[in-house]
Amino acid sequence: MTPDQRGHVDRVVPVYAFTRGRTRAAGQELPLEAVVTATGLALTSGASLQMESRAIVEMCARPKSLAEVGAALRVPVGVARVLVGDLANSGYLEVHLPRTADGDGGPGHEILGRLLDGLRSR
Amino acid sequence: MDSVRVDTPRRPPPTRPELIPLKVLVAGGFGAGKTTFVGAVSEIPPLTTEQHMTSLSVGIDDTAAVPDKTTTTVAMDFGRITVDEQLILYLFGTPGQSRFWFMWDELARGAVGAVVLVDLRRVDDCFPAIDYFEDRGLPLVVAANAFPGTEVFGDRAVRDALALPDGCPLVRMDAREPRSCMDALVALVEHALARSLG
User: Fold this and answer.
1) Complex-level ipTM
2) Which residues, including other chains, have CB under 8 Å from residue A111's CB and lie 6 or more apart?
3) What one-character DSSP code corresponds to residue B173?
4) Is A74 left (phi over 0), alpha (psi -120 to 50) or beta?
5) Is the separation of the CB atoms in B25 and A102 below 8 Å?
6) How many CA atoms lie within 13 A of A51 on its CB side?
7) DSSP-based three-state secondary structure for B138
């Protein structure tokens, strides 16, 4: 499905211009569900950031996943990953990564138990 | 009595418990109800995330006239459930077409597990998803979505038709009903927990 079919407005500036042509963040490859939150630095100096970056730190006043950031900015996840990675590296965002029991495995039983309790109580 | 509010010149960032994101994949054939499922349980209106993919065109997209690399956009619906003050569960409706499966490896990494939605009138559509998750040892539940006429298939017949191993839960559900979707999620997490303890 192309962006046009999804009814998105055409961008004047190609999305990769926001990332200065880079497709990889300086840091780690963030998974789609990685959650980011604005830091104290974002509260005090976020206003000086470029528009797209400022929009990210503002929306991350409440926790947002990388996927949510991409959807809100209407950019592909790869673009959001670069922007978020840069903002994390410069101290504006804190990244909360999934905790896996072992390497590539899923969450451990303690977290699964809490997830189960939380879902059952809904 | 109202407490006295003291204004401080600069608000420090609120202290939060460390957040822990989790994800569940919602898979199944085209039209099996993935988007409906995500929308039924998500606390936010379902969002769409897009990934630009560069892939070799092999004529699937009717771009045979341009047999080189093409860039396609793969869209995925997703939703969120805030479980408690620390846990945030994301649900990703995974693209069903097999040619996008190279994406699934990234999606499957670290996942709690997968709900594989099945339209019992078209069971063939779900085999690839079941095979994929079983091959990678990812916990899965098969959720038979209530389409008209599917109630006549008994559980035994469904398990046989899908060649489900005994340990794999089968739930009958209706993706339009939030309660029903939540029950399917609970069944998945119970299964994943049992396996992590086993």
Assistant:
1) 0.83
2) A99, B20, B22, B87
3) E
4) left
5) no
6) 4
7) coil
**A chain contacts of residue B21, beta-carbon cutoff 8 Å:** 33-35, 65, 96-98
Picking from B101, B84, B105, B90, the residue whose alpha carbon sits closest to that of residue A69 is: B90
A67's tokens: 């996927």
Q: What is the pLDDT along chain B (198 residues), one digit of tens a residue?
A: 455 555 555 555 556 679 999 999 999 888 899 999 999 999 999 998 887 766 544 444 444 444 455 666 778 899 999 999 999 999 999 877 666 777 788 889 999 999 999 999 998 888 889 999 999 999 999 999 999 988 889 999 999 999 998 889 999 999 999 999 999 999 999 999 999 998
In the stretch 39-98 of chain A, residues with CB closer than 8 A to chain B read 39-40, 43-44, 63, 65, 67-68, 70-72, 75-78, 96-98
Q: Is A26 on the interface with B (CB under 8 A)?
A: no
Query: Token pair of A57, please?
Result: 């730190």
**Residues pairing with B23 in the sheet:** B90
**Torsions phi, psi of A20, nearest 5?**
55, 40
Helix, strand or coil for residue B28? Answer: strand
Looking up tokens 């398990």 gives B159
Does the pTM of the predicted model rise above 0.90?
no
**Angle at alpha carbon of residue A70, lines to A64 and A71, rounded to 5°:** 90
Are residues A86 and A25 in contact, defined by beta-carbon separation less than 8 angstroms? yes
